[in-house]
Specification:
With 681 residues, the protein is of the alpha+beta class. Strand 13 (504-513) and strand 14 form a beta hairpin. The relative contact order is 0.10. Residues 1-19 have low confidence and may be disordered.
Length: 681
Amino acid sequence: MKKILYIFLILALSVSAQAQIDRSIQPKAGPAPKVNLGKPQTFNLPNGLTVMVVENHKLPRVTFSLSLNNPMSVEGDIKGVESLTSSMMGNGTSKMSKDEFNNKIDFYGASVSFGIGGVSGSTLSRYFPEVLSLAAQGALDPKFTQDELDSERTKLIESLKVEEKSAQSIASKVRRTLLYGAKHPKGEYLSEASINKVTLANVQNCYKKRFVPQDAYLVIVGDVKFADVKKLITSNFSSWAKAAAPKDAFTEPVNLTKTEINFIDVPNAVQSEISLNNTISLKMTDPDFFATTLANQILGGGGDSRLFLNLREVHGWTYGAYSGISSDNRYVTDFSASVSVRNAVTDSAIVQMLAEIDTIRTFLPTQAELDLAKAKYIGNFVMNAEKPQTIAAFALREKTQNLPSDYYENYIKNINAVTLEQVQAAARKHFLKDASRIVVVGKASEVLPNLEKMNIPIKYFDRFGNPTSKPEAKTVDADVTVDAIYKKYIAAVGGEAAVKAVKSVFQTSKTTAQGMEITFVQKQTNDGKLLQEVNAMGMTVSKTMFNGTTGYMMVQGHKQDLPQEMIDEIKVSGLFPELLPISADTKVAGIENINGSDAYKIEKGKKSSYYDIASGLKVAEEATANVQGQSMTQRTYISNYKDVNGVKLPFTTTTSAMGMEMEINVVNALINEGVTDADFK
């Protein structure tokens, strides 16, 4: 009975309370959350090393990070020496071989990484003394050998060659070169020539001069006791000789006085990489730091920012558009707004980006926008603030950025204090619409005509940021036809008689992605049958089969009929589509540079093929499709032709997948062997 009475009482009070609530009035925000920020325990070694310890005994683990807060350096004509030095560290010591050193790290189940900028690692707390000792040995007594240098040089050059094919990688590098200058540490351009100039003596000298304890900070977080850590650090790092890193002289960059477009022609680019840039001098201690941070969040800080909503949601030109700022209490940094769009809308995207920057400079943002930006920063701050790693990171930043000791205690208050007017003032100061360096990396033949109509001065640069002349479009002679190009290709791969004699092709190819070997098996006939299998880790990942009339596609055990669009595509592909009748929508669309050589471009609907003018061989294919509402163009490079029974087949194809360049190599190829009707059932 009492229970029922209590229920009625609660309901009555609830109804009474609801009657007094005016739901047309938005509730007032509660007080700002209070965050209890801990402080690490700190001590210093005589050599200048500062050690910060955050005890946390919840889990039996320890992480450690040695950061060298060195001034930026100019590498000059041996650009790449710091990268090579970093990659060679951790490969043993003068007293311990590479294998012995790595085996000991593995024995403790630890992970340790080394570089010219510091050392980091993690381990179980019970093994922390041993792992820290190994990390100290690897850091303070690294072994540099000519064999290791040659090996790491080869790896670095190979990765550089992959990047040179990517418009996105080119844009990232050349943007910094144009913004900061080729002789500035942030603007130096890595090249194969500079990598090849690095000697073993250069590596040894780089380590000796730059791996020093002055302004170095060792942060230790986890299941440790301060007194024990102090003994361990003193024992392992006191031998590190006291020294300060050299300070290189370089000129800080200055902004343009008038907006201009810096165009870099990448003929193989399937989309344009655009960035609007200007340098800024912004310190974390500046009065407008928080206002600038919030202004950037509103402009391009995420999926609800103005750039993202405009370019993706309204126009559907891109997967995402963003802006970013960086701050440094020692050097000039920069603001950048960037986007990747298809070539046809490059000029339109620039217009919209400039308009958004102009709007945030000219008009106050809405209170809702500012409130949302504040909520995001405060929410992230509160969520992470009491984590031991965050406490250590804050303490490190206070040291390296010369922040006041109560900087993070006042963080939420300073964010909340920012006004609409301060956001606008910060945007006016740091987002320079009328003095912006607009860097565009793309295909000149498709992008330049519309850019030239924008009445913005255009300057031209090569992939290394060097001034160059305007790329001139090459014209196709009137006597060059699709039929002539196809006939030259057929002759180049073996001749019409040999090609027509090909009834089937059976190929096995391999590639490696994210450390995993992937095998491709393809069987194809000249009457339109096709079988494709993709295998990884001993399993069939996907299988596609077409018997000339019907077919299916199976992905991870899920089977479905081939869509009609794919069937139509298979039917017109064939072993050698150049032998098929030429359709009315097939045309010669121009000449483009493919990996350093001119090639004829033949368009057929949404697909294009490229044939080297000199050799006649097909060197690339391109297809455009709609993916998740966005138009995406995929290009595949074809190379390394080898003779198989009198017919040349390409043994290497290179394409982009998941943001990576994937090279697929044929390991076995058979013509008119290994294919039967049973394969297509």
